[in-house]
Amino acid sequence: MASKTPPRAVVTGGAGFIGSHVVDRLMKLGYRVLVIDNLASGSRSDVPSAALLEECDVADSRMEPLLAKWQGELLVHCAAQVSVASSVRDPVLDAHSNIVGTARTLQAAAAAGCRRFVYLTTGGALYGEPRYLPCDEAHQIVPLSPYGLSKWTGECYLTLLAPDSMVWAVLRLANVYGPRQRADGEGGVVSIFAKRMKSGLPVEIHGDGQQTRDFVYVGDVVDAVVAAMNATSSITVNIGTERAVSVLELHGALSAIAGYSKPPVFIAPRPGDVRHSQLAIGKARRELDWSPHTTLEAGLAETYAGMASSVLESQAVRRRRVPTQ
Ligand SMILES: NC(=O)c1ccc[n+]([C@@H]2O[C@H](COP(=O)([O-])OP(=O)(O)OC[C@H]3O[C@@H](n4cnc5c(N)ncnc54)[C@H](O)[C@@H]3O)[C@@H](O)[C@H]2O)c1
């Protein structure tokens, strides 16, 4: 009996925080995965060895031949410049990755006959200072940073230019956190706090700590990607928890997990930060049959444990590298 050929997928940004978790899940589901990443913020070591890693910028013209050769039926577009602060410092670089890169990825995917396109974008940096909470998908779009604007523009390219043969999904994510997270993304506050607590260092909070965010665990986001790639028609949805958590509350929950007792140090608020951010997820519940399952406490514990083991692993690697003579 002839063996069935495994399905193929492409994950751009698959060496990054969320992308690497998406790659893990797709491989568990039996996909052969091509990761396209320029390693600007991602790590080669976060890509499983069974996945193929192509070091390439998503805005590069090599995208067309790469995707044509791979013939993936699904593409999950995670690659992006994700730092709001960097986007303010260098909006051209941000636009190159997030606007040109998304247009290029879409064009190459369409030319290669890819039938499913999942685009990860921001819910937190899209709606501006909210007119009401939680923000649903119909909320006015008022990005306050070049990053919010470039991610929104990518969304517009997708909804405008995707061919009829392609089913697409736009996932507007809240503040994502979890193991392997770097400190500069939107949910980076969790990894910053956890790293400082792990090292016994003081933790700084911008403003009074009463500002709120919607923190969603990376495993729940990956579940949403899987639900989106099985959707029967194209869709734009928020992915969050619909729960507003203050930064002070987050500090307390993580301190309890880390056994950390120092009080936070309050510093000047960051200009341009929205006071409250919370996403309505009724549409994802209804239309994707998706809901987040990870409580904040469980997600923070996983994140902290992941960080502890990665610190131990890197110490072990360093020890192995020490010359023995
Ligand atoms: N982390 C969050 O809280 C959050 C919230 C909302 C939306 N998002 C979106 O989710 C996606 C993944 O974010 P993340 O938090 O995993 O960030 P990340 O920085 O860990 O991952 C981004 C990956 O894209 C790669 N990359 C960047 N520019 C590239 C380019 N021009 N060409 C090829 N590869 C490139 C990086 O090397 C990295 O591996 C992004 O699209 C981001 O906008 C993240």
Q: CATH-wise, what's the superfamily of the domain at 8-178 and 215-242 and 275-293? A: NAD(P)-binding Rossmann-like Domain
- Average pLDDT level: 93
Number of strands: 13
Rounded to the nearest angstrom, the radius of gyration is 20 Å
Distance between termini? Answer: 55 Å
Order of helices and strands: EHEEHEHHEHEEHEEEHEEHEHH
Bound molecules: nicotinamide-adenine-dinucleotide
Q: Strand share of the residues?
A: 15-25%
CATH class term of the domain at 8-178 and 215-242 and 275-293: Alpha Beta
**Which fold name fills CATH's third level, the topology of the domain at 8-178 and 215-242 and 275-293?**
Rossmann fold
Spatial shape = globular
How are the strands ordered across the major sheet?
3-2-1-4-5-6-11
> What would CATH call the architecture of the domain at 8-178 and 215-242 and 275-293?
3-Layer(aba) Sandwich
Largest sheet: 7 strands, parallel
Helix content: 40-55%
Low-confidence stretches: 311-325
**Structural class by secondary-structure content:** alpha/beta
Number of helices: 10
